[in-house]
């Protein structure tokens, strides 16, 4: 699959091909849901998504993987080095770092605004020193760089049937919705890293603070006040999904099945959290395999339909140019997404 993706994308340089392969491996290892949804994209667009996600994952790993406390200086130095390499790569189109090289190539091919990458790095640096958020407004300012810009980076790759400015707010909202979902699912893990992403004023409205969360995490005991706060955060997150939803129809038809699948699967995490009684301080909620398979199958049907419509349109064109990504849909993808 990897070679076919790179061939279709017109990536011929051996070192650049290896850089994209490296990004694809990062995506596959860290982002199972989104990696598998990416398989529903036209084949020539997948390397770009792997580059964007691979870079984001790499930077996020620097922030998260080295612990807290004394390691902050080390992580700050690593992020600074990455930022310098990113600026150089975006400027020159070359980098000794495979992830940056692939990212720079993707940014050039799709004319992605470099400011989105700068905003992302700003958010990563803030994660080194900011461990909680007073209110949702403060959290949203952080998520502009950590999540909204990911949606904005993706938009040129996905393509739109409207002007990009109309679709952009919905793409940004979808990035935020996905991250809020992760925040809810990972409350316990984030707490172990010293971070609380649930706004302090939302927690306080339900009689909860960091110490109460820590107590529940450490003792394994439940507290109805915590459950109430988590339920409120779930409602807030679903509201952001509603803001994002109109953007699905603004994407190019061949891109919609991928993003719709991710939309449904991530939304399913919220369902799983609720069905598990909001026990996220004690265990990670998981979307059942059977439900994932149903969503994947629906995505494949939508892919086939989009390609059929695109193929019919191409057949009517004087030059007979086939649609992009018109390779056969692979049935085994249902099992893989599941």
UniProtKB/TrEMBL annotation:
SUPFAM superfamilies: Terpenoid synthases (SSF48576). The keyword Mitochondrion does not apply. Keywords: Transferase. The keyword Transferase applies. Pathway: Carotenoid biosynthesis; phytoene biosynthesis. PROSITE patterns: SQUALEN_PHYTOEN_SYN_1 (PS01044), SQUALEN_PHYTOEN_SYN_2 (PS01045). This is Phytoene/squalene synthase family protein. It comes from Streptomyces prasinosporus. The lineage of its organism: Bacteria, Bacillati, Actinomycetota, Actinomycetes, Kitasatosporales.
